[in-house]
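Course assignment 3, question 2. Fill in each field.
Student: A.L.
Task: Predict the tertiary structure for the chain below.
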Amino acid sequence: MSNKLTQITIVLGAIALSTVACTSSAVEESYGDAVRSNVHAQVYDPATITNPSSDPVEGTDGQRMEAVMESHRNQQGSAESVARPIVIDVGN
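Answer field:
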């Protein structure tokens, strides 16, 4: 009798776990919404997302923008700032 009860318990447990695994959580339903919202908020003209313009950017100095882009491409972090130990003070 106890062997039969054990088998029933295992089967019911497996069924319960499989149904729980199939349900979606609140996290899964809104996963990625914050990223999409932030990307959308950073777009100057939302119409250009689906229909980008091939016109050049106007209203800025080309040489200055080239220097900015080169500094972004060539900039590297320093290993010294990464190698510093992390200190966590909890009020000792």
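Instructor remarks: The CA atoms of residues 16 and 22 lie 10 Å apart. The longest helix spans residues 2-22.
Grade: pending
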